[in-house]
Amino acid sequence: MSTHADDAVKWLAEREGAMLGRLAELVEQNSYTDNVDGGRAVGRLLADTFALEGLDLARVPSTRFADHLVLSSRGAPGVAPIALVGHLDTVFPPGTFEGYRVDGDLARGPGVLDMKGGLVVVAYALRALAETAGLGALPPLRVVIVADEEVGSPEGQGVIREAIAGATSCLVFEAGRKGDLVITRRKGTGGMTAVARGRAAHAGVAHKEGANAIWALARFVDAAQGLTDYARGLTVNVGKITGGQGKNTVPDEATALLDLRFETSADGAWLEARLREAARAAAEGVPGTSVELTGGVARLPLERTPESASLMERYLEAARAVGLGAGEAPLIGGGSDASTAFAMGIASIDGLGPRGVGFHTKDEQIERATLARKPQA
User: Fold this and answer.
1) Measured between alpha carbons, how far is 289 from 285 in angstroms, rounded to an integer?
2) In 3D, which of 326, 2, 337 has the Cα closest to residue 138?
3) Fewer Cβ neighbours under 10 Å: the N or C end of the chain?
């Protein structure tokens, strides 16, 4: 390692307690995506954590979520920026999973892994570099922290695109995997709502006059589920169905909620088109009904490219030098904001946060020692 890198590692080692203390504060404050006040409180804590000379903060206000945060440094002139991306929201509504606790070598709590731990890592890494080398000696930095990642970043994607335009690489500090494996591939995600409408009638007196919306929806569901192709990495999951008034009434409306996953952008478009064909065919099969689809692809996949593979190898070379694990993770089914950077043509890698398990569960945890410096995997 260089002298600056040695100095930064030493600086971090002396501040492990401060990192854990700030992580505890962040985790204790609920920041469920729809908890706007809680998200804003976490945003204020993060603004304080990232308060560095040479790193400017801008808040991007939202009418639906907490503010998104964008931090930038001037950096060395004539050098393209590096993007560092994360999110401040969690999946746990207030009262469902709360609090921070230490359990031996582990830290537990909502967001400790996904991904408040990763945000602490980014902040203190930048603080260490600022103290030892100075941010002005680095490439320009673009740090983006969105408040809506857990619902697909409907606003955050636009914030990221504007903030990191022109960057040559993007590092995403989502949950670190066992063995420090770097993520280069994630599935794309989407969601659709299918609403079938028909004509109500008495099931005994006027059955013939009705048009059964549930029957039309059932035909659509069967066709939709049939699009799943594990070999191709395509899945369609109809996760919820509602409809009808009672067994003696021909139902005039029914609704289904669908989850979509796919490995390539082309397959995402293909899947949308096939589902719309299935909706038309289902309605034609039950005269007097219609099946309307809303939604579609929400987040494109993170695909492995020669550029992202090269970025990963450079990262792994540095990881090996300090005794970290050095490998590539298999395809990940869940999405992240790395996909937004990828769609811009920016080489992107993910999973660089502290090691842990249990994201999106009440057993969420990290290895405490991996905040300041990951011990050898």
Assistant:
1) 9
2) 2
3) N
Q: Amino acid identity of 192?
A: M
Give the N- to C-terminal CA distance of the chain in Å, as an integer. 19
Contact 101, 364 (CB under 8 A): no
CA distance 46 to 26: 8
Map tokens 């090996």 to a residue. Answer: 320
- Angle between helical axes of 116-132 and 16-28 (0-180°, round to 10): 140
In single-letter form, the type of residue at position 252 comes to D
Reported as a single tens digit per residue, the pLDDT across 222-263 is 999 999 999 999 999 999 999 999 999 999 999 999 999 999
Q: Which residues pair with 58 in a beta bridge?
A: 70
H or E segment to which residue 373 belongs: none
43 touches 17 (CB < 8 A): no
pTM, two decimal places: 0.89
Q: What is the dihedral of CA 10, 11, 13, 18, to 10 degrees?
A: 180
pLDDT, tens digit (0-9, with 9 covering 90-100), for 78-135: 899 999 999 999 999 999 999 999 999 999 999 999 999 999 999 999 999 999 888 9
The pair of three-digit structure tokens given for residue 111, joined into one six-digit string = 């967001």
Structure tokens at 336: 């992240």
How many angstroms separate the CA atoms of 349 and 311, rounded?
Answer: 7
Rounded-to-5 percentages of helix, strand, coil across the chain: 35, 25, 35
Task: Return all residues near 284 (Cβ < 8 A) that are at least 6 apart.
Answer: none
Amino acid at 356: G
Q: Which residue has the tokens 């591939």?
A: 185
Number of Cα atoms under 13 Å in the Cβ half of residue 78: 0
Tracing tokens 């308060």 back to the chain, one arrives at 51
Q: Spell out where the chain has E strands.
A: 55-60, 68-73, 82-87, 101-103, 106-108, 141-146, 169-172, 188-197, 201-202, 235-243, 249-250, 253-262, 290-299, 347-349, 356-357, 365-367
Instruction: Report CA torsion sign: 142, 364, 325, 306.
Output: negative
- Are the C-beta atoms of 126 and 138 separated by less than 8 Å? no
Q: Which DSSP string corresponds to 256-274?
A: EEEEEEESSHHHHHHHHHH
Distance separating alpha carbons of residues 48 and 55, to the nearest angstrom: 12
Cα–Cα distance, 115 to 174 (Å, whole number): 6
